[in-house]
Amino acid sequence: MGKKQIQLITRVSIILIPTYSVAFVTEAMIYTPPKLAACTLVAANLYDEKENENRVDEDGGNDGGESIDGDGLDG
After folding, report:
1. Per-residue pLDDT of the chain (75 residues; tens, 9 = 90+)
2. Residues whose CB is less than 8 angstroms from the CB of residue 72 and which lie 6 or more positions away in sequence, other chains included
3. Structural domain range at position 24
4. Is 7 within the bounds of a domain?
5. pTM beyond cutoff 0.90
């Protein structure tokens, strides 16, 4: 198994095992959503990876608020 698969299994285990344990022990779903949110936060920050992807504006629009020919909105 690769590094990514092991990290995925670890993250899923951190989320599912405590969440289902709380639901099973308490026999109430009222405690499950907060536990799920907390475990998801822990699992998401477990590994320090550089998974940033480059975001590119694909529509080709101008971000400056001016028209392409350089005329502003003033007229």
Report:
1. 788 888 888 888 888 888 888 888 988 888 888 888 888 888 888 777 665 555 666 776 665 655 555 555 655
2. 65, 66
3. 3-44
4. yes
5. no
